[in-house]
């Protein structure tokens, strides 16, 4: 025996659903954002993600997960002032990928700390080289692995010498 509902019962059910939708209150964008950030704060308490900042981006979460699964590596980039930046790139990353990841890392850091508003990256790459074991990483298309860079290796910013 099959249960066949009448058209009036279906109409009543549809009407009931419409009423439920109307009863639901709409939240303002700021409240939704607060709820989302609270949920995100709970997620980053996971031991895998605990190193991430509170105002974490999806890109940072994905990078951390990729690191855990061995799909990415951390390249430690040291600046002249002694600061070491942990930059996450995919295993098959090129020098250009590393440069873009450095830029993204510093942009996020500035947003969080409210630092310098604009960095001329054209100036940075004209003025500095990335160096690994004494070798300049000067070919943007060359893979980091081809330079011998592995997970947790350190790359240094070195000021270029002016040609006279």
Shape: elongated
How would you sum up the major sheet? 5 strands, mixed
Contiguous helical run count: 5
**What Rg is obtained from the alpha carbons, in whole angstroms?**
25 Å
Distance between the termini: 95 Å
**Low-confidence parts:** none
Mean pLDDT over all positions: 83
Helical proportion, percent range: 40-55%
Q: Give the percentage of residues in beta strands.
A: 15-25%
User: Widest sheet: strand order?
Assistant: 2-1-5-3-4
Class of secondary structure makeup: alpha+beta
Number of E-type strands = 5
Structural key phrases:
5-stranded mixed beta sheet; 42% helix; 164 residues; alpha+beta; single chain
In short:
By secondary structure, this protein is of the alpha+beta class. The chain contains 5 helices and 5 strands; from the N terminus they run αααββααβββ.
Describe the structure.
The longest helix is centred in the middle third of the chain and has 19 residues, at 95-113. The protein is α+β, with helices and mostly antiparallel strands. The chain is elongated, with a radius of gyration of 25 Å. The model has no long low-confidence stretch (mean pLDDT 83). Strands 2-1-5-3-4 form a 5-stranded mixed beta sheet. It has helices at residues 7-23, 29-43, 58-68, 95-113, 121-127; strands at 72-78, 84-90, 128-132, 135-136, 154-159. The N and C termini lie far apart (95 Å).
């Amino acid at each position: 025996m099959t249960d066949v509902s009448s058209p009036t019962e279906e109409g009543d059910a549809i009407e009931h659903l419409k009423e439920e939708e109307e009863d639901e209150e709409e939240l303002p964008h700021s409240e939704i954002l607060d709820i989302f950030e609270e949920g995100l704060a709970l997620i980053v308490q996971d031991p895998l993600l605990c190193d991430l900042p509170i105002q974490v981006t999806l890109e940072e979460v994905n990078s951390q997960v990729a690191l855990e699964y061995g799909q990415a590596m951390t390249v430690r980039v040291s600046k002249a002032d002694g600061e070491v930046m942990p930059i996450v790139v995919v295993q098959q990353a090129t020098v250009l990928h590393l440069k873009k990841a450095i830029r993204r890392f510093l942009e996020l850091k500035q947003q969080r700390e409210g630092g310098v508003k604009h960095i001329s990256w054209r100036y940075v790459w004209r003025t500095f080289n990335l160096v690994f074991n004494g070798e300049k990483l000067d070919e943007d298309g060359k893979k980091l692995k081809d330079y011998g860079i592995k997970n947790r290796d350190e790359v240094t910013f070195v000021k270029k010498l002016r040609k006279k």
